[in-house]
Amino acid sequence: MPDSRRFLHPEAIGRIARLDLRARHVVEGFLAGIHKSPYFGQSIEFLQHRQYAPGDELRHVDWKVWAKQDRFYVKQFEEDTNLRATLVVDVSRSMSYGSGPLNKYEYGATVAASLAYLVLRQQDAVGCVAFDEAVRTKVPQKTKRSHLNSIIQALDASAPREKTDIGAILRTVAEAYPRRGLIILISDLLVDRTGLFKGIKLLRQHGHDVLVFHIMDDDELDFQFSGPTRFDGLEIDEQLACNPRALREGYLESLNAYLDEVRHGCAKNGVQYKLVRTSEPLDGALATFLTDRRQMLRR
């Protein structure tokens, strides 16, 4: 039997009209079983011990362990509730750029649909927020398998337009979802970084676990343009005609500084981050990301 994963490279995937089939093929039989609830509370099932830290409640201290080892450890229990995930998908105009079969919006939407399928397959709840300057569409969190169609329709209806106000959007998400859950941000992050970091910090303060898929095109990461080129602004009404070879060194230097800022900002706020090229096979990108997450939750 042929390996179906080889058909999941973006060159072999249809456009967003077939998003439901892409999601199923990316996830089915390949990424199942990776999710593990990251939340701890008081419930029936004991999970593990960890060393006491200042601020921990004394009622969670395992006094039997203290009596044997003369060290303080607290008990952690796995919450008795299912995961509640929210996909926060950037559909601003900058996401419409693409040099391959899938632009950033199409790739990001496929990531969102694939993760939604995975969450629903595990009988957990998932919702979706598509945004640019404001929330464009909002799909509530539900657990029914048929709910995937609602998420796909919301993403399909959210063709890229306008620019991004990430700080205001993440504040809205924090207010709309007061119960802690899993927030998955899918964006090219061509945004104000101050607003971004304030937003994810606010989500973390609300108790949310935050994951970031940073979607970028090869052109943006490698800048392999040659010959006279005109660059058109996607979210600003400006044009630049230039010799890109003369700009490449300075561009890549600025790009690396920007990527370092994003990585460090996410790490500082306890956010799992992954940079993904739109040329990267989607199944491989998801597998790496979710495997890293599984290992992180086991620590």
Task: Write structural notes for this entry.
The structure is a single chain. This protein has 299 residues and is an alpha/beta fold. It folds into two domains: 4-36 and 82-298, Rossmann fold; 40-78, no CATH class. It is 38% helix and 23% strand. It is built from nine helices and ten strands. The protein has helices at residues 19-27, 63-69, 104-121, 147-156, 166-176, 193-205, 218-222, 244-268, 282-298; strands at 40-51, 73-78, 84-90, 125-131, 135-142, 182-187, 209-216, 229-232, 239-242, 272-277. The strands form three sheets. A six-stranded mixed β-sheet has the order 5-4-3-6-7-10, with helices on both faces. The protein has a two-stranded antiparallel sheet with strand order 1-2. Strand 3 (84-90), helix 3 and strand 4 (125-131) form a beta-alpha-beta unit. Helix 1 (19-27) packs across helix 3 (104-121), helix 3 runs antiparallel to helix 4 and helix 5 packs parallel to helix 6 (193-205). It is globular and about 75 Å long.
Radius of gyration: 21 Å
Low-confidence stretches: 1-18, 29-44
CATH topology of the largest domain: Rossmann fold
CATH architecture of the largest domain: 3-Layer(aba) Sandwich
* DSSP strand tally: 10
Number of helices: 9
The secondary-structure element order is: HEHEEHEEHHEHEHEEHEH
Main pleated sheet: 6 strands, mixed
Overall residue-averaged pLDDT value: 77
Number of separate structural domains: 2
Counting helices, strands and paired strands, the structural category is alpha/beta
CATH class of the largest domain: Alpha Beta
The shape is globular
CA(first)-CA(last) distance: 37 Å
Strand adjacency order, main sheet: 5-4-3-6-7-10
Helix content: 25-40%
Beta percentage is: 15-25%
CATH superfamily of the largest domain: von Willebrand factor, type A domain
